[in-house]
Specification:
Shape: elongated
Number of helices: 10
Strand content: 15-25%
Strand order of the largest sheet: 2-1-3-4-5
CATH architecture of the largest domain: 3-Layer(aba) Sandwich
Order of helices and strands: EHEHEHEHEHEHEHEHEHEH
CATH topology of the largest domain: Rossmann fold
Largest sheet: 5 strands, parallel
CATH superfamily of the largest domain: Response regulator
Number of domains: 2
Radius of gyration: 22 Å
Number of strands: 10
CATH class of the largest domain: Alpha Beta
Structural class: alpha/beta
Length: about 280
């Protein structure tokens, strides 16, 4: 990910570019936005900067949109960048010769849905600027650890539901799924050491296997202790259980917030691409 978050808007319409630029800038003022009206301008930007998202129309004054995407994919800085095709006729698109659509285009957006929907789509994918509140399921039986972690969450206006017991947390998830068939929690934080009946690994395995909530639907952050001098972190067990990421205690605020943001972005991007 680039140090400065950048978005490249490619559209032959001056009015469309202006509307998108103003709308996104107002809602994501820290995002660096470059707007281009031609393939030549876009390639100059793609060779110079690394972007998180590139959006492009199909018809450009000097090139075909898919040909442009193929050229962008050949640039070192943007070979893996998320690229969205914005068009009112994506079903009848003609692909460039030898171009793999699956690898080249990240997602398609129907122009008929309007610019506000496109802005929401882009911001949802970026995650950081999402206007929806973050909702965390937090499982920890340690009073000290809970006080530290909830203090950080409260300070940063992050909503959470806390349980000291894994079974109660699972019941909460089951009720949540029964209510809407979707998981309303953005992520789960769980300590490794819970109760003798179910530890953090077992809780995560139950969430993944029995509730069938995968890494994208419910990202999970595991809290664990720093290994001793004669010990090593058991990465196989941590990630084998189905954990997205882990953090050692005592929890550092900046570290926790950075990891939560990354995990929320994972969920938001999945939701944007699979509405």
């Amino acid at each position: 990910m680039p140090a400065k978050r950048r978005l490249l808007l490619i559209d032959s319409s001056d009015s469309a570019r202006t509307i998108l630029f103003k709308e996104i800038s107002s809602r994501a003022p820290e995002l660096d936005i470059i707007a281009c009206g031609s393939g030549k301008e876009a390639m100059t930007a793609a060779k110079r900067f690394e972007f998180e998202i590139i959006t492009t129309g199909i018809s450009l004054p000097d090139t075909d949109g898919y040909q442009l995407i193929e050229e962008i994919r050949q640039t070192p800085k943007n070979k893996d960048t998320a690229i969205f095709v914005v068009s009112g006729d994506t079903d009848t698109r003609v692909m460039g010769a030898g171009m793999d659509d699956t690898d080249a285009v990240t997602a398609y957006f129907d122009k008929a849905e309007g610019h506000k929907s496109l802005v929401n789509f882009i911001l949802n994918f970026l995650g950081t600027y999402n206007e929806l509140p973050i909702k965390v399921l937090y499982v920890d039986k340690s009073a000290t650890s809970t006080a530290i972690t909830t203090g950080i969450l409260d300070k940063n206006n992050i909503g959470y539901t806390h349980f000291s017991d894994a079974a109660k947390a699972l019941d909460c998830l089951k009720q949540d799924l029964a209510a809407d068939a979707n998981c309303s929690f953005d992520l789960m934080i769980t300590d490794l050491m819970l109760t003798s009946k179910m530890n953090g690994f077992e809780l995560i395995q139950t969430v993944r296997n029995e509730l069938e909530l995968d890494y994208l639907t419910l990202p999970i952050l595991l809290l664990t202790i720093e290994p001793g001098e004669d010990e090593r972190t058991d990465f196989t067990a941590i990630f084998g259980a189905g954990t997205n990421d882990f953090i050692t205690k005592p929890v550092d605020e900046d570290d926790l917030l950075a990891r939560l943001q990354t995990l929320v972005n994972i969920k938001r991007q999945s939701e944007a691409l699979n509405p």
